[in-house]
Amino acid sequence: MPQYAVLIYANDSAHRLDATPEDLEEPNGHGDELAASGAMRAAYAFTPRDLARSVRADGVTTGPFIDAPVAVAGVYVIEANDLDAALAIAATNPAIRGDGGVEVRLVHSGGVVE
Predict the structure, then answer these.
(1) Can you list the domains of the chain with their CATH numbers?
(2) The model's pTM
């Protein structure tokens, strides 16, 4: 079955180092629902952008690679029969409310190397 990466864009990640269970209830609940549905293959929540470091040819800088109003807050990989099914799953992400959103991309290749 095809796999799709769902990149989550938000003002910033809710997954601060000092986040409380209440802070994470909505994003983690959504992930739990996807896992229970059987569609989820992997999920990664990122820490806020102020903890990011960007590497370029001229060195390392503090912050995200691109300074933008939204940042990648996380990514998950789902299995879906086709793009329409993947879009329907992605449309349930809480990030689509407000200023955030998600990007859905077909995974071409890769996986865990052991």
Answers:
(1) 3-106 (3.30.70.1060)
(2) 0.87
Long-range contacts at 105-110 (CB < 8 A, ≥ 24 apart): 105/4, 105/5, 105/7, 106/2, 106/3, 106/4, 106/5, 107/2, 107/3, 107/4, 107/5, 107/77
Distances (CA, A) of 86 to 18, 21, 64, 72, 103: 32, 28, 27, 19, 11
Site of tokens 């569609």: 39
Q: Classify strands 101-106 and 3-10 as parallel, antiparallel or unpaired.
A: antiparallel
pLDDT, one tens digit per residue, over 75-101 is: 999 999 999 999 999 999 999 988 899
